[in-house]
């Protein structure tokens, strides 16, 4: 696979995953849950709960954090490396993430807390699938690091130490996709409630299936050329 084709695949995949993350996070917040795609705020809330002796909420937040970590552990088992390289078992990881969101959708009418746990584990799995591409750190479920890298790169461009390139394009696209997904999540959350999680689950199922097909086609091309 050529470098250009690989970059296009990584770009499109990153955009889809980032959009799903923004969508799910905003939808869950609209439904009354805490953020599920990143943990800084949750850990701060846990600290405040412990300090104020709000043990019930502290346990809820601690379970959410643990669920996120467990999802990341699943990615570690399946993918085995944080360096993004096409050919690894990302398709299976995305299908499992889709299943976790489907379980969240099923449990949501009965328990928002349970649905939040499964949504957080799905986010942890996605976030850990790949954290670096070439020399670039990539996260698709939260934007602090992405925005930091954008600012740093812009500073280098302004100072003449770097030219605008693929890294700025990729990072900026991830931010835009996350925001668009968040807007859609807010709209769907208000109109459809928890049923909106099924859209995210279906989108991930299609993305995982598409990766399986891509991996198969690339493998057949490699075999024919050798």
Structure characteristics:
8 helices; globular; disordered C terminus; mainly alpha; 226 residues; 76% helix
What does this structure look like?
The chain has 226 residues and is an all-alpha fold. The chain has one domain. Helices cover 76% and strands 2% of the residues. The protein is built from 8 helices and 2 strands, in the order H-H-H-H-H-E-E-H-H-H. It has a two-stranded antiparallel sheet. The longest helix has 29 residues, at 197-225. The two termini are 14 Å apart.
- List SSEs in N-to-C order: HHHHHEEHHH
What is the helix content?
Answer: over 70%
Quantity of strands, as a count = 2
Contiguous helical run count = 8
Give the DSSP E fraction (strand runs of 2 or more residues): under 5%
Mean pLDDT: 87
Major beta-sheet overview: 2 strands, antiparallel
Radius of gyration: 18 Å
Large-scale geometry:
globular
Tell me the count of domains. Answer: 1
Derived from helix and strand composition plus strand pairing, the structural class reads mainly alpha
Low-confidence parts:
222-226
Distance between the termini: 14 Å
Record the SSE blueprint.
Blueprint: H1 3-30, H2 40-51, H3 55-79, H4 90-107, H5 112-129, E1 132-133, E2 136-137, H6 144-158, H7 166-192, H8 197-225
